[in-house]
Amino acid sequence: MQDEPNEHLVRAGAFSVEEREAVYRAIRTRRDVRDQFLPDPLPEDLIARLLQAAHSAPSVGFMQPWNFLVVRDQARREAVWQAFCRANDEAAEMFSGERRDSYMRLKLEGIRKAPLGICVTCDPTRGGPVVLGRTHNPRMDSYSTVCAVQNLWLAARAEGVGVGWVSIFHQDDIRALLGIPEHVEVIGWFCVGYVDRLYDQPELALKGWRQRLPIEDLVFGEVWGAPLSAAFDRET
Amino acid sequence: MQDEPNEHLVRAGAFSVEEREAVYRAIRTRRDVRDQFLPDPLPEDLIARLLQAAHSAPSVGFMQPWNFLVVRDQARREAVWQAFCRANDEAAEMFSGERRDSYMRLKLEGIRKAPLGICVTCDPTRGGPVVLGRTHNPRMDSYSTVCAVQNLWLAARAEGVGVGWVSIFHQDDIRALLGIPEHVEVIGWFCVGYVDRLYDQPELALKGWRQRLPIEDLVFGEVWGAPLSAAFDRET
Description:
The structure is a homodimer.
Chain A: E1 9-11, H1 17-29, H2 44-55, E2 66-71, H3 74-92, H4 97-105, E3 116-122, H5 140-158, E4 161-166, H6 171-178, E5 185-194, E6 197-199, H7 203-206, E7 219-221
Helix pairs in contact in A: 1-5, 2-5, 3-6
């Protein structure tokens, strides 16, 4: 084991103003897309770039616990959609009155409309029984996988591709449909397709479900509950 | 509730080639920084931009379950470091022989060296007892918080700022040090500081701990285990 692989330490300063703004634009304009998918198929090389971006994510102990199942087949996506519908009926039961009416009017999935589905999974056995950094937090492997998801999502925004995260399903239904081993966690089903329009704010805010919280209320200085004097720009 | 807030649907195509490359450069060159932190303090407006990037993350049911505790005080960071050391001694016990020697030589934290610590937490009660999209996967709130982490991490890369994720601690130790309520999950402690050099590959790979897995082995087509014909560029 090398102690100091110095020849691999390379210059890494701040990006140019334009590059920095591109990164922030991806972060700021990314949306959880439900309905704006175009039917055009995605080229192979674009899909490969999105998956490479995901695979560039950090992972606890470098275990890289993720897998990506790329699903184009319409019958298979239809079966996933039916699993979603069963779970969604159960979810709607959790709300009552006007809130349930609102819930039923939301378009919660683009499983059938998006030309591509990507099922992202986490294999907790990937790095052997002891993983560096996971001993005190057994969820670190799934957290690594979510970092891969967010990489893919931001890369997709830059490519003009929308992504929608579907979490309303029973894991066993999705495992059965895609042949996923029982010990592997299904992190999410992602609807993926070209978009030419996106909402300028989160859809749930625009549709009155829940509004954005003021960032000042979420940031503390030194200890929980103490304000931080930071220059937040309310416009961004 | 509005059914179709069309005036909020705005044009959102692909970025320019240069902008797209900036996003991919942030994703590709981001590192989990352990030791390269410079002591220079971070300006308030830069910290605010990083936190705004985090707050732009997707969240299940738009619950925005995250909080960010910005810790600059040296004595407090020293106390966090001591909590890390206690946990790290326990973690080292999980390895034996040469593997334990390797573990002990890794620099696993920059808690004292980085001028700033950010503790990121997840409050599962933020959105009330029933959260849209969380019913079938109770971990969706912490996954949303991890999306915020990855946003912050990529924004930091573009700003010339390094980030290191520390997961080796007992949650109760960190809660006690920072006054975090018991029902709130500590997602991670993040060491944050300017960097002018970064490794050109993940540090754990360079130091022989574990190598990058071939992406072809992690991507399947249609069902688990079936190869996907995608044009992966092995150089990226």
